[in-house]
Each structure stands twice: as structure tokens, then as C-alpha cells.
């Protein structure tokens, strides 16, 4: 039997893990979203995402950067008093959330929920390639537990994929709603060097006024910058 290996880590790299997905049981892996308050606080995100897999598929290890770093100090576990049947694993140094486990029900205890954001980019790309990660198929962890599904994205009349309506309403007209993200990459002729780039553009102008051309784009040419724009950092006395 062949396996697809997905890899991930915390932000500092002390915690690393490997998920081996059998080629004949890919459907068992699921990407789930949950807007539960505990998950939102633990991830500092309005809509945390998880990769749900059977516990035997997951293997993890820790790497100490200094001699006095122990396994228990690197891989920390948090169990709240009001939910003694749950465990949250996170890095004790960078604080990145790694996984969530619950034995609230007997069936639930057989699964582990890996933080989707801790996966490497190639692994997330593979999830998308095999249709585990398409927006229209994403499910809510809360709804999954009650044997139901909750659509987190849908196509509008123009065929554009749209996400949670309530989330789009939150960012509409806000600073987040005026962010533009672009990605690209280049590979050298001999194929030995590959460069990837990502640009995030923020337009601080009001959309209506910017469209009328009454206000500039807010961008400045480098030749327009003068010494008066430099910020001098001074220490306290």
C-alpha cells in the first residue's frame, strides 16, 4: 500500500509532525472549520481550520535547539477545567497551536484535529489537488459532530466562489476588505533555482472616492521620499 506524506511544524520548527494518508483511504481525511469560541481564542482566528485524521496516521517529534530544552517544555498540552476531556497541543516556545483532541464521545477519541495552518505549503496544495480542501466541500467541525454538514462557501450567479456570508459582511468596507494579494514565481532555465513571491497591497482610500480619482492611490514614488520622512529612533533617558 502506498502512502501520501503530509508534513507540518510549529513556527520555530521545534515541533514537527508527519501524517501518512493511505492511498486507498484518502476520503477518511477531512478539512473542517469551527467558529467555536474556544477554537477562535486558541488560534486567534475568526474561523479556525483543522485537518481531521485518525490518530494512527499522525507521528510527531520535537527538536531541542539548546541542551536545557526538554520534550515536555517544547510540546505543551493544555486542558481547560471546564473541558477535562480535551487536549490542545502547542509549542512551548513559539506558541503555535498544533492539534486538538477530544474524547467527548467514544468515536471522537479516535480522531485528532491538526491545525491546518501548521501544514507545509506543498501539503496544503496536495489537499487541494485531491479535493479534500475545496471551499465548497469544507465542513464545520460542530456540524460534523452532529452528523450534518455546513456549507462554508458557494458559487454566486457569476460563478465566483464566495465564503461565509457573515464573515464577508464583517470585512466588507473594513481595512481587511481592501487588501489585495498576488502570488507568482519564476524558475531558472536550468531548473535548479526557483523563486516564489507574494505581494500584499493595501489601499487605505475609500473605494468610492478612489474610483472617482479625487484622491491618489496613497502610493509614493521612491524619488518623492525625502529625509524628512525618516524616523529617528531615540532611546529613553
Spatial separation of the terminal alpha carbons = 68 Å
Q: How many alpha or pi helices?
A: 6
Q: What does the largest sheet look like?
A: 7 strands, mixed
Main sheet strand line-up = 6-7-8-9-4-3-10
- Beta-sheet strand percentage? 25-35%
Q: Indicate the low-confidence ranges by residue numbers.
A: 136-140, 147-164, 209-237
What is the molecular shape?
A: globular
Q: What is the element string, with H for helices and E for strands? A: EEEHEEHEEEEHEHEEHEEH
Gyration radius, in Å: 22 Å
Number of strands: 14
Helix/strand class: alpha+beta
Rounded average pLDDT: 75
What is the percent of helical residues? 10-25%
Describe it.
The longest helix has 9 residues. The chain has 6 helices and 14 strands. β1 and β2 form a beta hairpin. It is globular and about 55 Å long. Strands 6-7-8-9-4-3-10 form a 7-stranded mixed β-sheet. A 3-stranded antiparallel β-sheet has the order 1-2-5. Strands 11-12 form a two-stranded antiparallel ribbon. With 237 residues, the chain is of the alpha+beta class.
Task: Please summarize what this structure is.
Helix content is 16%, strand content 32%.
Keywords:
237 residues; alpha+beta; 7-stranded mixed beta sheet; 3-stranded antiparallel beta sheet; 16% helix; 32% strand; disordered C terminus
List the helices and strands and how they pair.
Layout: E1 3-9, E2 15-22, E3 30-33, H1 37-43, E4 49-54, E5 58-62, H2 71-74, E6 75-78, E7 86-91, E8 97-102, E9 111-115, H3 121-129, E10 139-140, H4 141-145, E11 154-155, E12 161-162, H5 165-171, E13 179-187, E14 194-202, H6 207-212
Parallel strand pairs: 3-10
Antiparallel strand pairs: 1-2, 2-5, 3-4, 4-9, 6-7, 7-8, 8-9, 11-12, 13-14
Amino acid at each position: 500500500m502506498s502512502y501520501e506524506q503530509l508534513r507540518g511544524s510549529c513556527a520555530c520548527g521545534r515541533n514537527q509532525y508527519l501524517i501518512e494518508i493511505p492511498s486507498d483511504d484518502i476520503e477518511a481525511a477531512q478539512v473542517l472549520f469551527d467558529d467555536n469560541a474556544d477554537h477562535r481564542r486558541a488560534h486567534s482566528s475568526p474561523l479556525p481550520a483543522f485537518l481531521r485524521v485518525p490518530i494512527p496516521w499522525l507521528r510527531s517529534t520535537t527538536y531541542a535547539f539548546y541542551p536545557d530544552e526538554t520534550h515536555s517544555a517544547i510540546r505543551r498540552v493544555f486542558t481547560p477545567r471546564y473541558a477535562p476531556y480535551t487536549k490542545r497541543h502547542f509549542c512551548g516556545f513559539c506558541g503555535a497551536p498544533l492539534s486538538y483532541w477530544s474524547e467527548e464521545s467514544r468515536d471522537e477519541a479516535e480522531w485528532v484535529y491538526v491545525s491546518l495552518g501548521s501544514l507545509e505549503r506543498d501539503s496544503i496544495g496536495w489537499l487541494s489537488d485531491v479535493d479534500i480542501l475545496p471551499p465548497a466541500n469544507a465542513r464545520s467541525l460542530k456540524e460534523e459532530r452532529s452528523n450534518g454538514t455546513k456549507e462554508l462557501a458557494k458559487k454566486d450567479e457569476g460563478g465566483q466562489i464566495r465564503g461565509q456570508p457573515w464573515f464577508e459582511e464583517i470585512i466588507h468596507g473594513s481595512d481587511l476588505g481592501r487588501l489585495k494579494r498576488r502570488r507568482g514565481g519564476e524558475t531558472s532555465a536550468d531548473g535548479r533555482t526557483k523563486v516564489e513571491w507574494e505581494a500584499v497591497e493595501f489601499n487605505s482610500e475609500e473605494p468610492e472616492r478612489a474610483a472617482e480619482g479625487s484622491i491618489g492611490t496613497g502610493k509614493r514614488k521612491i524619488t518623492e521620499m525625502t529625509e524628512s520622512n525618516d524616523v529617528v529612533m531615540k532611546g529613553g533617558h
